[in-house]
Amino acid sequence: MLVGPPGVGKGTQAERLREAFDLDHIATGDLLREHRARGTALGRAAAEHMDAGRLVPDELVEAMVEERLRDSPRFLLDGFPRTLAQAEALTAMLERLGRELTAVLLIDAPDEVVIERIAGRQEGRADDDPETARRRVAVYHEETQPVIDYYEQRGLLHRIDAARPIEAVFADARDTLAALA
Ligand code: AMP
């Protein structure tokens, strides 16, 4: 699993780790954007939360993840869990499926670095405007810090310094996972 602030480069690292370890990349932000593009009930329910830079309600995201996890024997979760309730729901899901987490990689960088990276992104995401980006970073500190503490207490957390070039971050993440897998 990858955890880290918005804009830190989790998507880029996830893509490389997916290739290196043959993992199924499950990115909840991407899945929600796909639902919106298809105009599903979930996509419509998620839209206003996403545009405001806030989190989509836990139960909606949890149901979406459980469905995906069922057919993914080797997965890389990216962007989930983002709240303590989601982390607890994931523990219950994995128990039901008889599976275990190998590691949680905290891809971390200071707020100034991630806000600058979001400002420089070319993807044209509506939630990348400066005000919404700052809201997303604030939501991360409020809602996701307890997730970090949860996995640290369970001895699963590994910190990766992401205020470095992409290659250096990837080498660190890859070596950390390779030592465990
Ligand atoms: P991301 O692409 O990971 O930055 O996610 C974009 C947006 O999707 C977030 O700002 C949230 O509104 C929503 N989102 C993605 N993952 C979750 C999640 N695990 N829980 C709640 N909302 C989420």
Give a structural overview.
- The chain is mainly α and 181 residues long.
- It contains eight helices and five strands; from the N terminus they run βαβαααβαβααβα.
- The chain has helices at residues 10-21, 28-38, 41-51, 58-70, 84-97, 111-119, 130-153, 166-178, and strands spanning 2-3, 24-27, 75-78, 104-108, 157-161.
- α1 packs across α8 (166-178), α2 crosses α3 (41-51) and α4 runs parallel beside α5 (84-97).
- The structure holds adenosine monophosphate.
- The site of adenosine monophosphate (AMP) has 17 residues, from α2 and α3.
Kindly summarize this structure in a few lines:
By secondary structure, the chain is mostly helical. It is built from eight helices and five strands; from the N terminus they run βαβαααβαβααβα.
